[in-house]
Amino acid sequence: MSDNSSHPGLGATTPWLQTQVKDLVENQQVIQVNSDATIEEACETLIKHNIQSVPLYDAKTQSYVGMFDLHDLATYILVKRSSNTDMDEISPADCSDLARNALTLGKKKFGARTTESDDVVVSRIADMSQINPFYSVLPETTLAQVVAVFAKGTHRVAVMDGTGKIQGILSQTRVIRHFFEHGDSDALDRPLKDLGLVTGDVVTVRPDTVVMHALSLLEHWRISSLAIVDEDRRIVGNLSVADVKYVARDRRLARATCIELVQTARFVQGLHDGRDRAAVFSVRPDASLRYALTKLIATGAHRVWVTEPRQSSTPTAPGAPPPDSTTGTPLAPRMRSGSISSASGPPPGTSMRRASVSSTSAQTVPIAPQHYGGSFNDCVCGVVSLTDILRLLAESLLPKANADPEYNYGSMD
Amino acid sequence: MGVDIDSCIERLYLGQILEEREVEQVCRALRLLLAEEANVVAISAPVTVIGDVHGQFYDLLEIFSIGGRCPDTNYLFLGDYVDRGHHSVETISLLACLKLRYPQRIHLLRGNHESRNITKTYGFYAECIHKYKGSAQTWHEFTEVFDYLALAVTIDDSIFCVHGGLSPSIQHVDQLRVVDRFEEIPHEGALADILWSDPDAEIRGFGRSQRGAGYTFGGDVVERFLHINGMSHILRAHQLCMEGYLVQFNDRLSTVWSAPNYCYRCGNVASLLKVDPYLQRDFITFEAAP
């Protein structure tokens, strides 16, 4: 955990990276759960504080024994389901090798034995998924080192002082926000696709996919989110590992469809602050990194979907029978009055987009041209996650090929 | 029109839903009517303004009992008729019929929940399927109607009424008049902003919204908008208010919320806003119907 400000090259060009982690977690109220709490109790804590993971504290040894996060819960549910159900009951389309792989992983840690009762203590399943293990850093660690850790996919680290006390949890989101506010990069104004940030492999499910199958996909691919798409690959919703906490509350949700789980999650979330959220956060491939970041930071999401317009449009013939009930495409051509409401003025989007916004405030945002945000009719073609962006930042940190050969890159870990 | 609209209204007041065939006819007729309405409709006070209802049908009946029935009272609804509550079908059916029957006495604006995407997630779609025995036809009909709802209303050229808030793309109301509104709410642009934005007393100018659509906007934006358009006040809904309403920015903007005990658990009161012929604003609060 050496402070690398002694290395002149890095420190000079990227001052934001020299920030010590303790500065970013100041005044944080640390939420933790006792290691002997039940899984339900741990999930209630996650729901109550709207967080995705929580450190587990063992009062007897006065130390932290792991991090419980929702990937662990997802793995646990898969394991439990397999031992409580005859595997033949799960249809091949439902389960197959993907779930079996996840189960094997879970069973190694947890053991094939499960109890019907749900009083399993949370410490038994902590770090079960091995996706977000407990990772701690000293308060003086700089962001340069943390960015490298985040670039590998870990979502958060615990900032621990020498006495073993957690000062705070530092998340990818917090670091990205710090970069946006204090960092500088030419990359910010370049399109996502030029930065190689648009990963083409998007794992999708249909609205009626069973939650169990979705969980097995999350664990198999070690991802945090799935796009729920209709048969035209239009995104109708987003299933995140964060939504799994509601399955702990109501076990029946494990057998429900993805769209039902998402509905439950959104229902509860909107009650939190009385503000409902858009169903999908999306951008076009030519959106700038800055645009994607403002969206990510404002919404607190861990990824945005990348969508593009469909290649060919198939207009519905007048008088055609209503299309399939799950697609929601328009039934008939629009009826319009001749004069008033039709676009008799300039075509939408020309004069409006040039309108200026007050430039006196630091809070103003440039007007995003309409094509930056995805349209509801778009097909999903990629995803940009915080991990992807942090990987880009980590790569830009690495000195060029002819760098100082004596520098020890191992210390980046 | 093949449907007996008075009979529909009478049954709806009793909480009985219409038949699928009747919904089709009402919606078809309503689309024809709304197609003639401008994006920004000019009305006169007195009018009673109602915020989000969200399928809380029995609270809607409470609103009519406190505020008076339509057409005895003029009403302006600011959107969000469906989702979350258990009686979205009854709510939107009644309001649609009232609009058809008394088009000048009741005005319905579009809210962010009047959308195919949102209603698929927040409950209206599921409710339609359930109440109409697995058929999504009524959902299709209503969501088609939503595309035709007006975006904003001006009361005596002085009070600007919209569901969400302001947009960086719209400085003058005339810009809103030329938007092509007859479509599903897009993710970005003026139409999305008007329906999704929120005021924020802590910022100046526009900021990105936590909701993932629309913007947040400060008091300076409100002042500038009112000044440019020669208006005195903005009325909107879209955000839960525990006290039923919230007045901000030196009485330049008000939020009206009309769903008491939101989702049957928030414990909030709701309000309706009476605007008198002198444009005096008076909030009347009420609690959930028993």
UniProtKB/TrEMBL annotation, chain A:
Coiled coil: none
GO biological process, one term: cellular response to glucose starvation
InterPro entries, sorted: AMPK_gamma/SDS23_families, CBS_dom, CBS_dom_sf
Single GO MF descriptor: protein serine/threonine phosphatase inhibitor activity
Chain intervals for the UniProt region annotation (Disordered): 307-362
PROSITE patterns: CBS
Lineage top rank: taxon: Eukaryota
Signal peptide start and end residues: none
UniProt keyword terms in alphabetical order: CBS domain, Repeat
Pfam assignment, any one: CBS
CBS domain sequence ranges: 26-87, 128-185, 197-255
Protein name: Cell separation during budding
Species of provenance: Coemansia thaxteri
Automatic annotation (TrEMBL), chain B:
Top-rank taxon: Eukaryota
One MF term in the entry's GO annotations: protein serine/threonine phosphatase activity
This protein's encoding gene: PPG1
Stated name of the protein: Serine/threonine-protein phosphatase
Protein's UniProt keywords contain Mitochondrion: no
Catalytic activity: O-phospho-L-threonyl-[protein] + H2O = L-threonyl-[protein] + phosphate
Stretches assigned to the Serine/threonine specific protein phosphatases domain: 109-114
Keyword Hydrolase among record annotations: yes
Transmembrane segments: none
Keywords from the named record: Hydrolase, Manganese, Metal-binding
Pfam families found in the cross-reference section: Metallophos (PF00149)
Family, as annotated: Belongs to the PPP phosphatase family.
Record-listed E.C. numbers: 3.1.3.16
